[in-house]
Amino acid sequence: MMENDISNAMIYRNLGNTGLRVSALGLGTKVTFGKQISDEMAEKIVTLAYNKGVNFFETSEAYGNGAAERTLGKILKNKNWRRSSYVISTRLSRSGDAVTEQGISRKRLVEGLRGSLDRLQLEYVDIIIVTRQPDTHIPIEDVVRTCTHLIELGWAFYWGTCKWTPAEIMQAQSVARQFNLIPAAVEQTGFHIFQRERLQQMQEMCVKLSLSDLAVSQPSCNLWVSWHLAIERMLQLNDLKGLQCHPKGHQALLEHILSPKGRMHQTQVRQLCKLASRLHCTCAQLAIAWCLKTPTLSCVLLGAATVDQLQENLEAIQVQTRINFTVQSEIERILSTDSSDGFL
User: Which biological process annotations from GO are given for this protein (predicted)?
Assistant: First the structure.
């Protein structure tokens, strides 16, 4: 297959005011890479994504204790694609159990990124994402200076934030202007059809600061919908064994789905699936396409466990053209009983 086959008509968007163009759908590695799927399947998924025009790949030192980065690094080395043809984002938060291997101190960020580069087998990443919480005692100026230093070393081109408050982001941008440092280019935030509040709160600020949003759901919106449907089927069949075999790392999600709020979400998923059927798409495609309609989003990150699942989700690019005002209003009506505070 030719490089970057555009049969899915991938859309590309600006990453803030950086001038960097990224695919509207990106591939995240948290849920599956290095843990739930083989490296062979991971390579097939990455290859399909790249061939369908995806140029944004997201990972983190914390995903599988570095396993996701190692898997992605091996794939990129095997494929030998031009490094200039794709974008790698890695999130720094913790690399081990020692107190010096957690947080976002200068030492932690420098050593963390160096470790990520080793695992990815890359000379640089394109974007460093810094998780602010719970290190609220670390001066924001020090974080901005450290990220500027890493960029000046040639280890990255841009940096961004994750889970920072609007006030913290405003302060970081102010510090960057005051001391002629490099400002953040992106905020990575949890966002899906059941978790909308934070991004909606951030939109006005992002526009003012020319800051881009990366939408990433933990788990991503397509997997969220799939798990709701799968667990509902298990409940209907009284499949207690199936529930007990649910992936260990997703017990919190299972508990949420079985809670009163989760039951409400299951009802909403059924209604959304009926709407999706009328639009001739799957419920997961509808959920992803709905995310794509958010104006400040540069990229919606997908998770996938199989090639077929990724192919289905990539087709949300076409589905988003069917989401007009009437459809959006119907989706909001379905979700109107939800407080939108999300599970994560």
Answer: monoatomic ion transmembrane transport; regulation of potassium ion transmembrane transport
